[in-house]
Design goal:
Blueprint (H helix, E strand, L loop, with lengths): L6 E4 L3 E9 L5 E8 L1 H11 L4 E8 L2 H12 L2 E9 L6 E4 L8 E4 L15 H6 L2 E5 H6 L1 H16 L3 E5 L9 H11 L5 E2 L3 H8 L4 H9 L5 E4 L7 E4 L2 E4 L13 H16 L2 H16 L16
Parallel strand pairs: 1-4, 1-8, 2-6, 4-5, 8-9, 9-10, 10-11
Antiparallel strand pairs: 2-3, 6-7, 11-12, 12-13
Helix pairs in contact: 1-9, 9-10
């Protein structure tokens, strides 16, 4: 690779269509953007100044070319991106909501869902300082699930930190399969980033202490429970810490947790201070919910520090 990324992410990127209005006939009007949880996260990290790269596959279609152009513009290395000429690039549609997630997906048979262990850039993973993956990526196909596991194994063997967002999408798999896969993966994760609502579903408990103990039992170096407007709970070095949330007018929650993850990784890698990285990541997420779409409103470093 011409410039070795410090932070690599693996997963599926998607074309995004956000409803912004309706026409005179009541039909929805959409604005095209970009999404995909790990892609959002790596762009957030890049906007904070980290050296980044992405591992995925895109289709040989205009959407795939648009994603390649996006990553180039965002200074995210695409040397690990495979182009599968005969396969489509996935997409999704968003109904904006400041608090919830209202998504419709068109991703079955996408190029990224056909990605497997043989597509991995193993040298790049071994050379990186952090690998970021998610349970959502594991859910899209068996081959991508195997790729995520293999990538984490390479990372652990190379002293590359593994960051894991337990992003739960039950429209892609059953709760039983999700729980079994996540619990099998957690021993490989150094940084664990669950969201409270998804963690409640996964654990069957609404008690935050119990949720922290559930994930903490796997002994990650950093555990960050994302709680939306309540602010995150950080567990690191055996200590728990909560944070005051920045004041923000939220209009669309799409990508907030992803940008938080990417911001945290960038600042944690830079400083080694999990608490300070969390404070800055909160500002990244606050900027993201202030605008529409997953990528466009992600703030840059100059607006965060």
């Amino acid at each position: 690779m011409t410039s070795t990324p410090d932070i690599l992410a693996l997963g599926e990127a998607l074309m995004e269509f956000v409803k912004i209005d309706t026409d005179a006939g009541g039909r929805p009007l959409y604005r095209q953007g970009f999404g995909g949880d790990t892609s959002n996260a790596i762009i957030a990290a890049a906007r904070q100044g980290a050296r980044t790269g992405y591992l995925t596959a895109v289709g040989g279609d205009p959407f795939g070319q648009a994603l390649l152009g996006l990553w180039k513009d965002e200074n995210v290395s695409t040397e690990g991106v495979r182009v599968k000429e005969q396969d489509p690039t996935g997409s999704y549609f968003v109904l904006p909501d400041p608090a919830g997630r209202q998504f419709s997906y068109a991703r079955r048979g996408s190029a990224a869902s056909l990605y497997g262990p043989d597509d991995l850039d193993e040298a790049a993973i071994a050379a990186a300082k952090v690998l970021h993956v998610s349970a959502l990526s594991q859910a899209i196909s068996a081959s991508m699930r195997d790729a995520v596991t293999r990538a984490a194994e390479i990372a652990r063997a190379s002293d590359t930190l593994v960051s894991y967002d337990t992003n739960l999408r039950l429209n892609l798999w059953s709760l039983e399969d999700a729980r079994a896969t996540i619990e099998a993966f957690l021993p490989l994760a150094d940084i664990v980033l669950p969201s409270d609502d998804e963690a409640e579903t996964l654990t069957g408990s609404t008690d935050e202490a119990a949720i922290l103990e559930y994930f903490g039992a796997y002994d990650p170096k950093v555990l960050l429970l994302k709680r939306g407007a309540k602010g995150p709970l950080l567990r690191a070095h055996g200590q728990d810490q909560s944070f005051e949330v920045p004041t923000v007018t939220a209009v669309d929650s799409t990508g907030a947790g992803d940008s938080f993850a990417g911001g945290f990784l960038a600042y944690f890698l830079e400083s080694g201070d999990a608490a300070e990285a969390t404070r800055r990541a909160m500002k990244v997420a606050a900027g993201t919910v202030s605008g529409f779409g997953a990528v466009d409103p992600i703030p840059y470093r100059k607006d965060v520090v």
